[in-house]
Write a structure and sequence with these properties.
Blueprint (H helix, E strand, L loop, with lengths): L10 E4 L3 E9 L2 E7 L9 H17 L4
Antiparallel strand pairs: 1-2, 2-3
Length: about 60
């Protein structure tokens, strides 16, 4: 894991096509802006985990006995 320190309005760029910018810092909360090509899905971790769990459940229900 790469750990970086950024201030408000500072950014990082990933692979030349994904930009993450610190928009706001308010107490313990950090608001991030993410620019990425449309074909790259971006989800909050809890949403991604729910989607992965649902896909795994559906995969299991498709199994033939």
């Amino acid at each position: 894991m790469l750990v970086l320190t950024r201030k408000r309005n500072e950014s990082i760029i990933i692979d030349g096509s994904i930009t993450i910018k610190v928009l706001e810092i308010r107490g313990p909360l950090v608001k991030l802006g993410i620019e990425a090509p449309a074909e790259i899905p971006i989800h909050r971790m809890e949403i991604w985990q729910a989607m992965a769990a649902k896909a795994e459940t559906e995969k299991g229900s498709d199994a033939t006995p």
